[in-house]
């Protein structure tokens, strides 16, 4: 007896089977430090500065410090802090970000984030951008994130960075074990 399986059912089955693998591709862990959900915002033609974002997590026994960022798409990268003082947005370069054991730090729009300066070409929506985050103990961690729309607040059409509970009660966890 032959069974006909609709193509959509086959695709859905493959997607379900690959979901843990695809989700894991959104994060890289080295020596107890995980960089998850990296992404950047698209930039207009001629703009030489862009912004990138991610979540950085440490396991319960690991402390570390983010000490540098870089990308092949930019002359240099820096970690910046953004605050609002009245109606004035203030940005300043940070020398690093300390990570305590079991801590999650979310680099996101309107807060701490990665500045990509001296862009070699515009960041185009839908492209991938490589980022290298360097830590005192874990060393360099290389990730690849999607370039989202210019005003995006999170990756993949989300309204915020995954795992960022400071912007609402929704908690999104893409780690699978």
TrEMBL record:
Q: Transmembrane ranges? A: none
Signal sequence: where? Answer: 1-25
Signal in keyword set: yes
Which InterPro entries does the UniProt record give?
Answer: LpqE-like, Lxx211020-like, PCuAC_sf
SUPFAM superfamilies (UniProt xref): DR1885-like metal-binding protein
Keyword Signal carried by entry: yes
Residue ranges of region Disordered? Answer: 146-177
List, alphabetically, the Gene3D superfamilies matched.
Answer: PCu(A)C copper chaperone (2.60.40.1890)
Q: Which residues form a coiled coil?
A: none
Keyword list, A-Z: Signal
Q: Known PANTHER family for this protein?
A: BLR7088 PROTEIN, COPPER CHAPERONE PCU(A)C
Name the record gives this protein = Copper(I)-binding protein
Q: Native species of this protein? A: Hyphomicrobium facile
């Amino acid at each position: 007896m032959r069974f006909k399986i609709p193509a959509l059912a086959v695709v859905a089955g493959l997607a379900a089977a690959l979901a843990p693998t695809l989700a894991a591709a959104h994060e890289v862990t080295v020596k107890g430090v995980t960089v998850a959900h990296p992404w950047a915002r698209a930039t207009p033609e001629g703009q030489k500065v862009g912004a990138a974002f991610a979540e950085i997590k440490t396991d319960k026994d690991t402390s570390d410090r983010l000490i540098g960022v870089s990308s092949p798409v930019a002359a240099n990268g820096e970690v910046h802090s953004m605050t609002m003082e009245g109606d004035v947005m203030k940005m300043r370069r940070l020398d690093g970000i300390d990570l305590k054991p079991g801590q999650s730090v979310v680099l996101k729009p309107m807060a701490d984030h990665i500045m990509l300066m001296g862009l070699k070409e515009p960041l185009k929506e839908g492209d991938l951008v490589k980022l290298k985050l360097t830590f005192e103990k874990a060393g360099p961690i290389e990730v690849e994130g999607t370039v989202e729309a210019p005003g995006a607040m999170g990756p993949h059409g989300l309204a915020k960075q995954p795992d960022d509970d400071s912007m609402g009660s929704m908690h999104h966890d893409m780690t699978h074990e």
